[in-house]
Amino acid sequence: MTRIGFAYNEKPEPADAEIAIAGEPVLPEDEPPSSRRDAWSRTSTAAAPSAAVISASPPVDDEYAEWDSPETIAAVERALSGLGTVVRLEANDEFPERLRAARPDIVFNIAEGLRGPNREAHVPAICEFYGVPYSGSDPFTLSLCLDKARTKEVLSHHGIPTAKFWVVRDERELRRLVEGSGKREAGSGSSRRNGFDSRFSLPAFPLFAKPIHEGSSKGITEKNYCTTPEELETQGSVLLERYRQPVLVEEFLPGAEFTCAILGNGRGARVLPLVGMNFAALPDGALPVYGYEAKWVWDRPENPLEIFECPARIGKALQREVEKTALDAYRVLGCRDWSRIDVRLDAAGVPNVVEVNPLPGILPDPADNSCFPKAARAAGMSYDQLIQACLVYAAQRQGVPLSGKVVRVRARAAALG
Ligand SMILES: Nc1ncnc2c1ncn2[C@@H]1O[C@H](COP(=O)(O)OP(=O)(O)O)[C@@H](O)[C@H]1O
Ligand SMILES: [Mg+2]
């Protein structure tokens, strides 16, 4: 039997994490946050706050938003067990010793990492150190994609459209940017296709600010949408202080948004059916972005937010353009086996890459609105087939034989093309 190591980070108990939203009380341990959904993803049982309440008092306790729930971990383990014997390797302080002792033939990696801007690279780097094959992107790509600005530099270098951007590392740089902002009309100056000339031009409002090293909508709220120098100064300061990392300031992309689930490698890499964001489903007056409120607050078991359309309603020509942009980004960033790429249209209707997720979210319950499994379902793949396809791609790349029904998984994955 193939020995499959399974590397993950599990969300702590809600009571330990002391999670609270917008000043609401911490969830008591004995109170299930939701019934049919991924229970640990939702952090409050109180009624959904209105858009006004949220923007007045944005949620901030999103420390564990990236880690996986016991339900997700169990579902992935079940899927992997169709292709070998699964050994759980929680990616905590003991991971290196446990990996050495377990000596798996391959590691299936979904670990988001414990700490630091290179956290997602730690498990793959340790696997490389011990010569153990693993699934997904390598440490370099994982670190690169966790730095949204460096990612945009690479994309710009290769002529892949991404919004113009500026990086502020501290209050002084923020003030300098704020002083320069608003002095230029939107659309004037250098080409929108290339964000790399940003040092030489001044930003035009509206702008969108976000922490440079976060994911899972951490630090992304409506307040990040800045229409004046004052708003940029206030929110830039809040983000610098709260997340203790540089802030990425981007021109706001006003068009439609899609997310592209990509599976496979090289010429065999395929985009699964596009997921489109239906911002009309957000509460009245909400900003058309998929931020913390949309992901963790307004989408509730008793009142699910119908924000995803899959397959997206999109014309064939635009669909091809979105897919090409996403596949180009996947290739130049060195993504492997799978990734999810967010794309948004600029004012001219050109698809721009917003960010790249080489460790995509994979909540198993269809009610949980997780994009990658949703796109897989639209392609006729079950959750187990999706997880298994990712492992098969990783094993094929590295010449690792797998037990079980690999042939069927391979055939299903190939049929996507
Ligand atoms: N430059 C931008 N213009 C418009 N909307 C943006 C921009 N950057 C981010 N957003 C919105 O914020 C959401 C979250 O941003 P993203 O960088 O994808 O963060 P996360 O890593 O948390 O998913 C996006 O899905 C999009 O709706
Ligand atoms: Mg995103």
Please, could you describe this protein's structure?
This protein is an alpha+beta fold and 417 residues long. Among the domains are: 164-251, Dna Ligase, domain 1 (2-Layer Sandwich); 257-416, 2-Layer Sandwich (D-amino Acid Aminotransferase, Chain A, domain 1), CATH 3.30.470. It is 33% helix and 15% strand. The chain contains 14 helices and 13 strands. It has helices at 14-17, 51-56, 70-80, 95-102, 122-130, 139-145, 148-157, 171-180, 229-243, 292-297, 316-333, 371-378, 383-398, 406-415; strands spanning 3-8, 85-90, 106-109, 165-168, 207-211, 225-226, 247-251, 257-263, 270-271, 275-277, 308-309, 338-345, 351-357. Strands 8, 9, 10, 11, 12 and 13 form a six-stranded antiparallel β-sheet that branches. A four-stranded antiparallel β-sheet has the order 4-7-5-6, with helices on both faces. Strands 2-1-3 form a three-stranded parallel β-sheet, with helices on both faces. It starts with a strand and ends with a helix. Residues 17-60 and 185-200 have low confidence and may be disordered. The structure holds adenosine-5'-diphosphate and magnesium ion. Magnesium ion is lined by residues 342, 355.
